[in-house]
Amino acid sequence: xxxxxxxxxxxxxxxxxxxxxxxxxxxxxxxxxxxxxxxxxxxxxxxxxxxxxxxxxxxxxxxxxxxxxxxxxxxxxxxxxxxxxxxxxxxxxxxxxxxxxxxxxxxxxxxxxxxxxxxxxxxxxxxxxxxxxxxxxxxxxxxxxxxxxxxxxxxxxxxxxxxxxxxxxxxxxxxxxxxxxxxxxxxxxxxxxxxxxxxxxxxxxxxxxxxxxxxxxxxxxxxxxxxxxxxxxxxxxxxxxxxxxxxxxxxxxxxxxxxxxxxxxxxxxxxxxxxxxxxxxxxxxxxxxxxxxxxxxxxxxxxxxxxxxxxxxxxxxxxxxxxxxxxxxxxxxxxxxxxxxxxxxxxxxxxxxxxxxxxxxxxxxxxxxxxxxxxxxxxxxxxxxxxxxxxxxxxxxxxxxxxxxxxxxxxxxxxxxxxxxxxxxxxxxxxxxxxxxxxxxxxxxxxxxxxxxxxxxxxxxxxxxxxxxxxxxxxxxxxxxxxxxxxxxxxxxxxxxxxxxxxxxxxxxxxxxxxxxxxxxxxxxxxxxxxxxxxxxxxxxxxxxxxxxxxxxxxxxxxxxxxxxxxxxxxxxxxxxxxxxxxxxxxxxxxxxxxxxxxxxxxxxxxxxxxxxxxxxxxxxxxxxxxxxxxxxxxxxxxxxxxxxxxxxxxxxxxxxxxxxxxxxxxxxxxxxxxxxxxxxxxxxxxxxxxxxxxx
Amino acid sequence: xxxxxxxxxxxxxxxxxxxxxxxxxxxxxxxxxxxxxxxxxxxxxxxxxxxxxxxxxxxxxxxxxxxxxxxxxxxxxxxxxxxxxxxxxxxxxxxxxxxxxxxxxxxxxxxxxxxxxxxxxxxxxxxxxxxxxxxxxxxxxxxxxxxxxxxxxxxxxxxxxxxxxxxxxxxxxxxxxxxxxxxxxxxxxxxxxxxxxxxxxxxxxxxxxxxxxxxxxxxxxxxxxxxxxxxxxxxxxxxxxxxxxxxxxxxxxxxxxxxxxxxxxxxxxxxxxxxxxxxxxxxxxxxxxxxxxxxxxxxxxxxxxxxxxxxxxxxxxxxxxxxxxxxxxxxxxxxxxxxxxxxxxxxxxxxxxxxxxxxxxxxxxxxxxxxxxxxxxxxxxxxxxxxxxxxxxxxxxxxxxxxxxxxxxxxxxxxxxxxxxxxxxxxxxxxxxxxxxxxxxxxxxxxxxxxxxxxxxxxxxxxxxxxxxxxxxxxxxxxxxxxxxxxxxxxxxxxxxxxxxxxxxxxxxxxxxxxxxxxxxxxxxxxxxxxxxxxxxxxxxxxxxxxxxxxxxxxxxxxxxxxxxxxxxxxxxxxxxxxxxxxxxxxxxxxxxxxxxxxxxxxxxxxxxxxxxxxxxxxxxxxxxxxxxxxxxxxxxxxxxxxxxxxxxxxxxxxxxxxxxxxxxxxxxxxxxxxxxxxxxxxxxxxxxxxxxxxxxxxxxxxxxxxxxxxxxxxxxxxxxxxxxxxxxxxxxxxxxxxxxxxxxxxxxx
Lengths: 696, 750
What we know:
heterodimer, A: four-stranded antiparallel β-sheet, 17 helices, B: eleven-stranded antiparallel β-sheet
């Protein structure tokens, strides 16, 4: 919810942003970027540089690669194996990229041709596992290529009826347990023991229950079996790739359109996901920006095709849409996206697999038959070193690397947070707050804010205590004085000017009197509307950073005007329209005055609470929440009473009227929207016509 | 009452309904009624008489002291011979006839003297070579002219006549296409590009030679089977042409040169006319055609991809062509053979060209540390709750003074500073025609103070913006004073999303001034500048004009081939104004003759697959003719740019900001995310002191040799005997008696 709100907000800010965002990127071989907290892509220093490009036939033993499908680096980082599907072989290179040998599988003395070999895994002792999708088997071969076993389909009684065994990816853990991905299986990976006996599904993901799913389930119970079979099945997106790290944690990559969350999961031995972002949610992987391609009528999103996890917990995924690599840390934070399409080193045409070799990355390009070796730049080295230390809780040590990264990337959020954490660990909370603010980490900012505030309170305790005592005393004195001066309760003559204040405290009585005695003032109502508008702006502008939802510089006064004055105008108009149909006694002017008076409590509360954000930390946000509830409740009572009295309604009728008003506002907004879009169509039509004329 | 309301509501609803219906009908009509696309085709007869020579052999058509030009008037081919050593360059690859595997079509292509590209009625582009389109049907005329030979190729099927004049000059061969002699038979089949001598000096695979292309610093394409071709527009793409999808950034081709080696020679092609309308293209050898070629491609008609029929949620794109063809007189390439048979020779030949033809002269030695100082950028700020656009000070006028003093304290007193974003509203996106100082940076008073207090060793250049504007200002309107695209809409700078490469529609619009407004603008500027000159301003920079040039396709159009002259005269008038002359960043060739200082000299290439490595062609060609520095070292990866500076004998350069350097996100200065003076001032001073003597010794010298000692290890030699070895690799390297540390350098000989 919070996320979606944030996204909506960022969408809004993006739409409203009139500032100049000139991504004048420096000349280089590719854009590298990272998303900031507002999901806006920000360019960063290039994290990886292509240092080697293996493509010549000589590198691969005299034959160029032909439609290679997978690359694998052994656990000791010494050898790299390329599954050269088109040539029915596996090419072995040293870590330096020199040709070692090629392996051709033989079964019963006969050479074996692949049908659609897609996944390759090599154990520490050189045993090869090749998943062949169309041959519907996983070959297990000794280092010389002799097939010593095959992992076939699981027994039919252990899987669903229409199960098809199409293995595409295979990994083996150090205990010999084998995990196989079958491309059409939705229940997770197939798990086999070291004797290739099927154990069961592993890492299945539950279908997230959404309204859509519920409705579909409902239809299924209602429809005949035949009709129901036409409905989409409620299945989780299937896993398409596996990887395993040295601690035997299996990583899975989901297929699908690359949007949503949890595309990459890190599974424990029970098959549960342990890869979460800082909010404890499954992370978001892949590009966040999408666009609508109106020639093909599709929304273009990332399509992730491979992943690799290294021993430090960094996960790199390969996106086939933009031919980019995206690297994440162990908390699913995107560190940088890089690569891309093109005819330059470090660009790709049809990348299908990614592997790590030490701190380098290998990318296998299927169409070009090439392996690109990418080495981390100084920037990436700093970020990676810092992340490792940071994850171990060594904030100060990590801070040194983060500072280096900041020298060339002053707004890189993770580095700002990292430097903030280093200051926090050293006890310099004020500096920490500065960096947390740039890094947009509100929780940590708030924690430091609380520290600074507590320190201040401790230092000035006597003063504060004195002030509190003084205020209390003054209140007692004032109350006493006013009690003494107080006249008869029933003969109170409140002047026109003090009437709004009187309303504040006496909602049940004041509106009635106002109606009868006609004490409402148009001028005061106008002032209270201005106050309402002012409170809206103050809330947008002066809320403390850690309570702020948006960016204060992006404030659009017109939007605030619309959401305060505009809303009130709509309310008044609809209220009047509905009430005239329901024998209401209020005139338009009266309704306006009454509604405006009723908003005063909201304005006051809003102003006060905005001020209070500068005294509360996020942990104490519950207090603020309670106070907001009180504020809303108070306002609601006023609005209700004002409506009731202005029309001289009964309670129930007033409630119905309020409901009717809300409905009226909704309809009116709908009309405005439709009218606007019609008008926009007309406008584009005219401009099109005009430009046609001008061009011909 | 109720009835009234009901009637009112009914009336409103019916009005809305009627409007809606009308709009829907109109829309429907616009979709179905296909506008009459087929234009009336007008055929013009082409006047042409074939004139085919009798003797099918090369004959001498012209010679001078140094060169001889041979041409075959029966089967169009030419040969350029240098008399001193007999080195020859042929228009078709020598030895082609002895290759039995070569297909006939490939042989024809490789024999062509001139290729053209044209757009047919459906706007599809086709390339045809002079052999297949004209010579094989004997549809050509060969005539000897003063100094050489002229071929008129008549492409009968396509309906074009294109002449090519080949003449000898003192320094080599000139290939020229006189545009007024081009004939087109029809309006709907359009000639778009002309490629003279596409196979001149084609390099055979396995000969060990290479082609040179002007990609960034310059790059080598070896004569080997390549993985891709190379093609880059000189001086970058034309903003008026417009792109619909962004691409990853590449280095820009800034020099109008290319080159190729022969068995014992190196030839450089210099595009001397029509460079702003040209591309340099290289074709890598393939197994079908085992020759690498490099040549110039001239754009006769610009192809424009535009959005037509912009409806609410969809848009259609169409190919359009520039209404009129290029307005220049000629497209010319001059081929000169270098004294030294390698790329250093080529670059020095171009250097000679700059000295003799462009009147560039040798400079005095200089070793100042070069800086790019960011003044202030526009950003949104909230003042008493009201967000306003105002300038965020990064280096105020007083801060410049402080920076100079801080450097002096570190022992660095010679500084050449380019002051960017210094003027009102942060310079970028506001024309500096009125030379107004920015209040938030200290205003007029502080600026005067700064000018009066600058020490002797400090040269401060103020950046001018003569092209970009965001709002109406000083009598320039974003609607009427701007350049226009072919749809006659005001031209804006396109911005793209980093991730999806789609056009950003939410970004603020930056308009480009109509090129025709430039002369008057500079006239006005000149008056205002005089006052500042009296106050002590001594130099200006014009990075915008030096780095980009664009066309105007609206009413009274001017293409960028012709706009170039306006650009040059503008640069000239700015350069003449101030005593320290003109500073330019990453300057294109047309701007170089007017520059005293060139910062951000390109030192990298785009790393296309066909390229083997970068070569410091730009640095060699200009060494000693102008003060040069690398791009800001702190903006580069590690100390790569430092090494590049040493390799090219360039001054060091850093980009610095004094305050608020972490607040530049979402501003016009967003790319300066690395400029904190707190981080970089000391390292800059340290590096400068370490290299000052070397830079001083080599800055005025020509580069005589540049040798690759090992992969990633280069030795540069200068005319006065000074040398440097740089090592880009991660391991120390021993070259002769010198050990060069990993990612380090050694200098000597001075």
